[in-house]
């Protein structure tokens, strides 16, 4: 029900508010599929902030309506890598045809913010404050299940790119697990094209390609990793939230890699059963949950994080339906 069609508003409004009270004039950021860029553009409009967004080239070119939405809310959008920054120009010299990555877009947004004393950089996932903002999702889910007197939760599924969405959903359930009130299985559904949890290393790494960000201890495929241009642009990030990575290391969360084809198949099935067209990112969680209940068909309470709708992603669904994905 969010104006931008995703969970990202939970953090965008908070970040825009606190920056505005601190006298900041402008926020720069990156975006993959465009949900975070849309959310921050919307939030910036509420608090009188200028928003400048670097969108990963693969999504910028394949999802033009997300760009239109950002501009409608007052944001400025650039394809990344761009010629507007030193980081972008250096990347283009090495590979003029690159499809881009969130790590590249982060480098550009950070560079511009660092050069402007009235600007700040805002990140839409990964960092602890974003994870905290997103726990409203899990807190509401726990409360909703209590209203229907669900006898415990058997499994919680969310898609995982940077990790704040899945962490926001699952951490309140982990609280219930730690206190012995339930014992859910927590599953992070990630794209097979960018398998951070299932194949990444747990170590310190930069959050961007240029190495401008602090080192973070997380599951990573390496700051220079450029994933295939899958349609789930919000999941094309090389590093996983440190807080979520820690829970994986503790054995509290497990990862599963989902192919793009299986994700869209699950998304189409979900749309036909529920009437809601899910975002390509969310279809990964749906696919993982569908396999889980198919393998274990007993009656269970299963929670799925439907983190975005896919009305602006219909061209991608058309590719799947036409057999061109």
UniProtKB/TrEMBL annotation:
For this protein, the record's Gene3D superfamilies field holds: 3.40.50.1100
For activity, the cofactor(s) needed are: pyridoxal 5'-phosphate
The enzyme's E.C. designation: 4.2.1.20
Pinpoint the Tryptophan synthase beta chain-like PALP domain residues. Answer: 2-308
Among its keywords, does the record have Lyase?
Answer: yes
Q: Which UniProt keywords apply?
A: Amino-acid biosynthesis, Aromatic amino acid biosynthesis, Lyase, Pyridoxal phosphate, Tryptophan biosynthesis
Cellular component terms per the entry's GO annotation:
cytoplasm
Identify the metabolic or biological route this protein is part of. Amino-acid biosynthesis; L-tryptophan biosynthesis; L-tryptophan from chorismate: step 5/5
Report the superkingdom from the record.
Answer: Bacteria
Pfam families listed in its UniProt record: PALP
- Record's keyword annotation contains Amino-acid biosynthesis: yes
What residue ranges are annotated as transmembrane? none
The molecular function terms of the Gene Ontology recorded here are: L-serine hydro-lyase (adding indole, L-tryptophan-forming) activity; tryptophan synthase activity
Q: Please list the reactions this protein catalyses.
A: (1S,2R)-1-C-(indol-3-yl)glycerol 3-phosphate + L-serine = D-glyceraldehyde 3-phosphate + L-tryptophan + H2O
User: What is the protein's quaternary organization?
Assistant: Tetramer of two alpha and two beta chains.
Report the family membership: Belongs to the TrpB family.
The UniProt entry, under PANTHER family, shows: TRYPTOPHAN SYNTHASE, TRYPTOPHAN SYNTHASE-RELATED
**Protein name in the entry:** tryptophan synthase
Q: Which organism is it from?
A: Mycolicibacterium litorale
């Amino acid at each position: 029900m969010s104006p931008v069609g995703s969970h990202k508003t939970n953090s965008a409004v908070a970040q825009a508010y606190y920056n505005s009270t601190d006298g900041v004039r402008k926020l720069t950021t990156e975006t993959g599929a465009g949900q975070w860029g849309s959310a921050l553009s919307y939030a910036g409009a509420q608090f009188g902030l200028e928003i400048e967004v670097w969108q990963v080239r693969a999504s910028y070119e394949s999802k033009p309506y997300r760009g239109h939405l950002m501009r409608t809310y007052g944001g400025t959008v650039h394809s990344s890598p761009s010629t507007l920054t030193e980081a972008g120009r250096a990347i283009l010299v090495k590979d003029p045809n690159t499809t881009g990555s969130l790590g590249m877009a982060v480098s550009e947004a950070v560079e511009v913010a660092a050069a402007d004393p009235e600007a700040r950089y805002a990140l839409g996932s990964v960092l602890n404050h974003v994870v905290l903002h997103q726990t409203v999702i899990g807190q509401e889910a726990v409360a909703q299940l209590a209203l229907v007197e669900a006898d415990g939760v058997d499994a919680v599924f969310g898609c995982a790119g940077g990790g704040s969405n899945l962490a926001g959903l699952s951490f309140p359930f982990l609280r219930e697990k730690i206190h012995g009130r339930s014992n859910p299985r927590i599953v992070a559904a990630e794209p097979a094209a960018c398998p951070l949890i299932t194949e990444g290393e747990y170590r310190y790494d930069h959050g961007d390609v240029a190495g401008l960000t602090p080192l973070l201890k997380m599951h990573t495929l390496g700051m220079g990793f450029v994933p295939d241009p899958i349609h789930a642009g919000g999941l094309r990030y090389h590093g996983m939230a440190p807080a979520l990575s820690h829970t994986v290391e503790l054995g509290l969360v497990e990862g599963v890699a989902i192919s793009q084809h299986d994700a869209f198949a699950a998304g189409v099935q979900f749309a036909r059963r529920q009437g809601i067209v899910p975002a390509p990112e969310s279809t990964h969680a749906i696919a993982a949950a569908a396999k889980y209940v198919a393998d274990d068909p007993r009656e269970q309470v299963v929670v799925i994080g439907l983190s975005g709708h896919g009305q602006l992603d219909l061209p991608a669904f058309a590719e799947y339906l036409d057999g061109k994905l």
